[in-house]
Design goal:
Number of domains: 2
Shape: globular
CATH class of the largest domain: Alpha Beta
CATH superfamily of the largest domain: Naphthalene 1,2-dioxygenase Alpha Subunit, Chain A, domain 1
Helix content: 10-25%
CATH architecture of the largest domain: Alpha-Beta Complex
Structural class: alpha+beta
Radius of gyration: 22 Å
Bound molecules: FE2/S2 (inorganic) cluster, fe (ii) ion
Distance between the termini: 13 Å
Number of helices: 5
CATH topology of the largest domain: Naphthalene 1,2-dioxygenase Alpha Subunit, Chain A, domain 1
Strand order of the largest sheet: 12-18-17-16-15-14-13
Largest sheet: 7 strands, antiparallel
Number of strands: 18
Amino acid sequence: MSLAILPDKFFLRDAWYMVAWPSEVTAQEPLARTVLGDDLVLFRTAAGEAVALEDRCAHRLAPLSKGRIESDGIRCMYHGVKFGAVGQCLEIPAQPQGHPNMCVRRYPLVEKDGFLWVWMGIPEQADTTKIIDAPWAHDPRWAPSQGYLHVHAHMSLVADNLLDFGHLPFVHPNTVGSVQQADFSTQVTPLTEGVQTDRWYIDVPASRFHQSVGRFPGNVDAWHCFRWHLPAVMSLDSGSAPTGTGARDKPHGSREGAIEFHHIAALTPQDEDHTHYFWIHWRNFEVDNPEMTDIVHRNIMAAFAEDQAMVEAQHRAVRRGAQTVPKAIMADKALTIIRQQVAKRV
Ligand code: FES
Ligand SMILES: [Fe+2]
């Protein structure tokens, strides 16, 4: 199977995508967001239920995001047609009998563990058991920092970036990586719908970020171990522990003298040139210190700005020079597996 660097059909519709932080969706202001090229309007009913509808009125296609939220639905503020939470027409001004066929498309939404997931396929096929669990959200031993990036690049390039942590010593030598990490390879295990990758760096200096919060007296054993869920959600364990404490043989979250993190990255294609990138980074130390929440946030955003600059430049280069065929190296194993799995599903 040949895999173009920007595949024509990389986007799976039968999937859950992170669409917005739950706090962005209110009963006061409609939120417009584009996912897989579909324009959505998000809002809450008076009962607090989050709703996603096509952002086009069924009358003459004005955006419903310019409309007004009412207790049981949203009213288009062009000619006043009102729609309910499943997209049904509730009211047409001066037309008492309504219009049974005047519906807008509804997208199933699920609010879970601090994420708001939208199903982009046929609503009847939405399978909520496929949404990943994030138990860290309810565990007082873990404290979150979270953020969002709007990346001007195709989602497959953003996914490639995360699927090969071999870029850390080159893109992030002064933030979340260290140059010594370049000597270690990645163990890659294909899964039915995803991939597991494990990188351990033994007896190396801690990354600048980990050193600044962990204050290690000497070298560390550090790790990045993640599970990728199709199409584009990464669930990552990372951390650093003093070398010689046997970190590799202990379960995540309970290593001696270590700082440990859990990270979820959820990538959502806006269209073929833009990606929504939502992340939460939990830590297991100083969990009651709000200053540490800010420090972690700043460090992660600094690193992600480095990724963003590289991936956006790559996207522009690919768009300009599509006659150049990419060549694979061994470190591409995980991203190749994911691209093949997505291509098969699409
Ligand atoms: S376009 Fe919405 S009511 Fe006319
Ligand atoms: Fe990166």
